[in-house]
Amino acid sequence: MQLICVSRGSFSAGKELAEKLAKKLGYPSIGREQLIEEATRAGIQVGKLETAMIKPHLFTERLAREKDHFRAFMTRALCERALQGDLVYHGRTGHLLLQGVENIFRVRVIADMEFRIQSAMRRLNLDWEKSRKYIESVHEDRARWVRELYGVHWDEAVHYDVIVNTSQMNVDNASSAMCAMAQLPEFQLAPASRRALEDLLLAAQVRVALAQAPATAQLDVKVRSHQGNVTITYLPQQRKSPDEIGQVARTVAGIRQLTCTPASTNLLWIEEQYSPESDSFRQVVEIASKWGSAVELLRVVSQAEDAAEEPPGGAVGRVEARASVLAPPGTPAYNGGIEDDLPDPGPAEEDGGLSATTMELTRVGIAGGSRVIRGGQEKILAALDRTIPYSLIVVGPLFRAKGHAAQTRMTRELSSSLEEQLKAPAVSPQDLQQYLFGPRELIKLAACLGASALLFWLVMANQESILRFLTPEAVPAKVLSASVLAVFVSLFAYLYGTASGLLLKLFKFE
Question: Which helix (H) or strand (E) holds 272?
Answer without folding.
Answer: none
